[in-house]
Amino acid sequence: SQTIHQWPATLVQPVGSPLSLECTVEGTSNPNLYWYRQAAGRGLQLLFYSVGIGQISSEVPQNLSASRPQDRQFILSSKKLLLSDSGFYLCAWSKPDSPNGELFFGEGSRLTVL
Amino acid sequence: AQSVTQLGSHVSVSEGALVLLRCNYSSSVPPYLFWYVQYPNQGLQLLLKYTSAATLVKGINGFEAEFKKSETSFHLTKPSAHMSDAAEYFCAVRGDTGRRALTFGSGTRLQVQP
Q1: Is B107–A102 a contact, with Cβ atoms under 8 angstroms apart?
Q2: Closest CA to A36 of B107, B84, B63, B53
Q3: Which of A91, B6, B72, B111 has a 20 to 30 Å separation from B21 between CA atoms?
Q4: Which chain A residues touch B53 with a CB distance below 8 Å?
C-alpha cells in the first residue's frame, strides 16, 4: 500500500530564517506531487505541483520554492521566511494516470514564523 | 476555470440531527467532485467522490452526497450526527482537464452539540 510522510510536524522559525519541509511517498512510482498551504479560515491554496523529477509548476508567486530531486521526494523551501508564511503545509500525491485527480494527503507541517 | 463555494464557514447541529453541508461548483467541463474531512492538526481524508458513475454517492462514516448538475451542487449529508463528526469539511473539484490539481473550497467547520 502507498504511504506519504511529511516532516517536521511542527516548526517555529524566526523571520528571515530559511525553511525546508520534506515529503516522501512510498509504494508507488512517478506520482504527481503537490504542496498546499492552509491558512486559518482560508481553505487550501495550491502552491506547487510536480509531474516528474525536476518538473515544478508554481501556482502563486511568493518567496517559497519547491524541488523534486527524486521520484518520490518533494521539498518545500524558503531562503528567508516572512510572517505571512505561517500556516499549515500539506503535501499530497495522486496517481499519474488518475482520471479524476484524487489526492492522498500527508499529516501536515505546522509552521509558525515569529 | 474551476471553483468551489462552500456556504457557511461554521455549522452547528445537535447530536442525532441531520447534517447538511453545502457545496456549489463551477466548471467548464463535467467535473469530478470530492468531499474531504480534516480533524485538528491532521491531513485531509477522503469521505467520498463523484466520478460520473452515479449521482448519489455514499462515503465513509455514513455520509453521502448528491450531484445535481442543474443546481451545480454537491451537498454533503448525514442523517444523524455523531460527536465524532466534529471536524472541518472541504469540498473540492477537478474540472478543467488541463489543470491537474484539485481546487478546494474554504471549508466548513462542523460542531456537534451533545
Answers
A1: no
A2: B107
A3: A91
A4: none
pLDDT at residue B53 in the model: 78
pLDDT of residue B99: 62
Q: Which of A94-98, B25-29, B110-114 has the highest mean pLDDT?
A: B110-114
Q: What is the pLDDT of residue A61?
A: 67
Task: Please report residues of B whose CB lies closer than 8 A to that of A107.
Answer: 42-43
Q: Which residue on chain A is closest to B38 by alpha carbon?
A: A107
Question: pLDDT at position B94, please?
Answer: 87
Q: Match 502552491 to its residue by C-alpha cell.
A: A47
pLDDT value at residue A96: 86
Of the partner residues A34, A88, A106, the one whose CB lies closest to the CB of residue B101: A34
Hey, what's the cell of A50? 510536480
Closest CB from A88, A102, A106 relative to B34: A102
Give residue-wise pLDDT tens across range A21-57.
999 999 999 999 999 999 876 789 999 999 999 999 9
The string of DSSP codes covering chain A is: --EEEEE-SEEEE-TT--EEEEEEEES-SS-EEEEEEE-TTS-EEEEEEEEETTEEEESS-SSEEEEEEETTEEEEEESS--GGG-EEEEEEEE-TT-SS---EE---EEEEE-
